[in-house]
Specification:
The structure holds two protein chains of two kinds. By secondary structure, chain A is of the alpha/beta class. Chain A has helices spanning 2-10, 22-27, 50-66, 84-90, 98-103, and strands at 15-19, 32-35, 72-75. The two termini of chain A are 26 Å apart. The chains are: A alpha/beta, B alpha/beta.
């Protein structure tokens, strides 16, 4: 997605990337980054938690419109409400993805 | 507070991401200034959750990915911004889809954006949002040469002043 953001930005349309891996987005030279420490699959937060989702989206809109220079990163200070081990397990698909199965020698 | 990018990543994958470097041809800063007031600006959402409109659009191609694990479907879908809960299907073999299907807003916060618009914080939303499928190991070339220009064309046609992109 950072590459899409860069391509869109290069055509004159400002972008912000909301991501669980802000270090990687920065390394890929993403113009504006909002970091969240959420399990994969949940960039805007917990299902049905409007307040959490709003905080992330509003931060993204603020960074999009207000960042003064390339490479601006703002991390959202919200702790994921589930225990880490539970969240770590539940974001993963029931079956390993094809590439992971292949890397594990099951493909 | 600084986000730890690796909290939820299996330890064995960490090496694939740590020390990431810019792609070839993507090693210079790009910057488009945001000129308008947010309250006058029209925004577009882009998700990599592999969402499609049920009954109207083809799902992303998971079958080919199963056959060719390094391939990811590089196409995209315009998602009408007004699409309501349960109107979307999801194809993404790398994450559990249960939570996104239970509440699309966690990946594509269309109603959340509507609330910001209703409060006058954001000017508006484009007629369509955008969905891609985020697993692109072998497909990045097509994303760069075909998908991105097509998306830019939609953004221009619909008068997008800015885009909020969210990989899953």
């Amino acid at each position: 997605v950072p590459v899409l953001a860069r391509r869109i930005e290069a055509e004159g349309i400002p972008t912000v990337v909301v991501t669980m891996m802000p270090d990687v987005a920065e390394a890929l030279l993403t113009p504006r980054v909002v970091g969240v420490e959420f399990p994969f699959g949940h960039p805007f937060g917990m299902p049905h938690d409007q307040r959490m989702q709003r905080r992330v989206l509003e931060t993204a809109a603020t960074v999009l419109a207000g960042a003064g220079r390339f490479g601006t990163r703002v991390d959202v200070d919200i702790a994921w409400p589930q225990p880490r081990g539970e969240a770590y397990k539940s974001w993963q698909p029931a079956e390993p993805s094809p590439i992971v199965a292949q890397l594990l020698g099951r493909g | 507070m600084r986000v730890d990018s690796y909290t939820y990543l299996p330890r064995s994958f960490r090496g694939l991401y740590e020390g990431a470097t810019p792609l070839e041809g993507e090693d210079e800063p790009v910057w488009a200034p945001f000129e308008k007031r947010l309250a006058d600006a029209r925004l577009t959402l882009l998700t990599s959750a592999g969402l499609h409109v049920v009954g109207e659009q083809e799902p992303f191609d998971a079958e080919r990915e199963r056959q060719e694990p390094t391939w990811g479907d590089p196409t995209w879908r315009p998602i009408p911004h007004s699409t309501t809960q349960r109107g979307l299907g999801m194809t993404h073999l790398h994450v559990n889809d249960a939570d996104v299907l239970a509440d699309h807003e966690i990946a594509l916060p269309a109603r959340g954006l509507d609330r910001l618009v209703a409060e006058g914080i954001v000017g508006g939303a484009t007629e369509h949002d955008v969905s891609v499928m985020g697993y692109q190991q072998a497909g990045l070339a097509e994303w760069r040469t075909r998908t991105a220009p097509e998306i830019v064309s939609l953004l221009r046609d619909e008068g997008a002043d800015g885009v909020v992109l969210a990989p899953v």
